């Protein structure tokens, strides 16, 4: 198809002789001035920063298709690099779509152009692979799929070469076409920003080292956080957005650069962009729809939104935030409504401006915990109205109704927003005219919205790790993704060491079947720890507030290869397993990192709380154990005191039960005599018996009388073995 549809231009160029069978012709468009070295250097500085004192050791990637846009970009940067040796070394990536038989040959032609003396640029050809069910006749779907696979191939190639910036050759005409399409699709306001000159690479969500990840967090012993937070990612740079295509053509002609042109771009019914391109080429449009005017629209909208995002960033630094990255929840106190603008909010226009700032601020806060990558402003409107009701114009008849819905819980951006209906935990930040013992009007708890049945069944929320396979000799090795993005919040790496299948998914209510109930296990309550393998998970659950956070946690399950039965392995973000801490030896290995978040002007430790530590879980487990012991021993005491055997009553027995308390940080057991004097059989000279105190770990063996009394006989419980035994205690 290219042999008939793609023409290599500039037949008089020095590289035209190497045309691999492609035809050549002159471009006949209106001539414009070429881009000067000074023009390009100014545009380059706007999108890319480099060290102006030492030579850069990094490389800068270029996406080169062979068209006039990318070839002009390569030529301009080559010239800039020759004038300034401190610029990074360029490296080209050429995507071979492999849709047509001759596409590989064409990619080789582009690579040859880059290797020529004109450029001297090394390059790599990136062949794309396609699924068997792809329908190339469905042009719209094919175009979308091709864009996704193209960016993913470029992103992985940059990651593998440790390149963090990728230059592409989008120009002013592309920008105007994008704005026109947004207008036609009614994507107004922020949609009219169109393409940014610097932004994160699209279509690569979930690819570690490409999408907001890959850069290790600097070790810092002062940070008391559960696990690292991802950093890094690959950025797209567009230095040519201010130049129209005619100037790129003039640049290639001036520098004697050959390029290839795909005639399918001229088929006006092929894509929406092609249709708009045809209109610009064949019709005279009003000045308001000219390329320059539409580019100006995008610039003004970008500047307008940039003002609000910059101001919202300052407000974000003022927000009081406690983020728990183990569960992905946070508690936040938003700033007062009066702070949304640097001036008094008096007019309706002021309220609109304040709302725009609030949108940016709320989105910035929600990004800390949401599983989604982007939220529309319309979705956030509900939250803005609840946090800042002062921005609403309400009549008297609406005030009563609004007061009832203002602080109601709601779900937006896949985040469950709950008004913090408790006294503020930010006790060091009191505000005038607010009672600290009452709930603060601008404090909200944000957690991940619970998954519905459809989301739970989504394969993306059920990552399968097949049985471990020993590497075979001579088998090709490929780079494996070290971490996978799970639920848009956690980067988790799991290595399966078993011959069974491991599954990573969100813990559900039905998964409680893996935990025996107290009635099923009450005989084991007082037994050794091996009788309660679930004890640490149960303790960790009890520490989660609110309790429904457990239904947002990633859990690892093991599926038996023979029976298909599932067993719970553990929770990687809590680093707890069924019978201890960390991944179970011989079953799997895991490591966790939280998704990349922007800390603004603060450090991670200023926002992230320490979370639930092993020490906390062990202490809670002991507390749970004592509760079970106390319940069982109380039951024993009631059975003894109820006269279940008159023979025991007639004996020299003091009935009683054991009670667990915490004394100076050490857990001790006390046995308190209970009952009225008429129920107590006294021994010779004994006036009263109040407490017995356990010393050591003898399981009831070492008991000391706290009051100086004569010998008495007690029936006490051995808390370690769940048995009753007679014990004689004396002064």
CATH superfamily of the largest domain: HUPs
Overall shape: globular
**Order of strands in the sheet with most strands:** 5-4-3-6-8-7
CATH architecture of the largest domain: 3-Layer(aba) Sandwich
- How many runs of DSSP E, i.e. beta strands? 29
By secondary-structure content and strand pairing, the structural class works out as alpha+beta
Mean pLDDT: 79
Portion of residues within helices: 25-40%
CATH class wording of the largest domain: Alpha Beta
Overall tally of domains: 3
Global Rg: 35 Å
Enzyme class: ligase
Keywords: ATP-binding, Ligase, Nucleotide-binding, tRNA processing
Organism: Decorospora gaudefroyi
EC number: 6.3.4.19
Please supply descriptive tags for the structure shown above.
ATP-binding, six-stranded antiparallel beta sheet, Rossmann fold, 731 residues, single chain, tRNA processing, 29 strands, alpha+beta, 18 helices, six-stranded mixed beta sheet
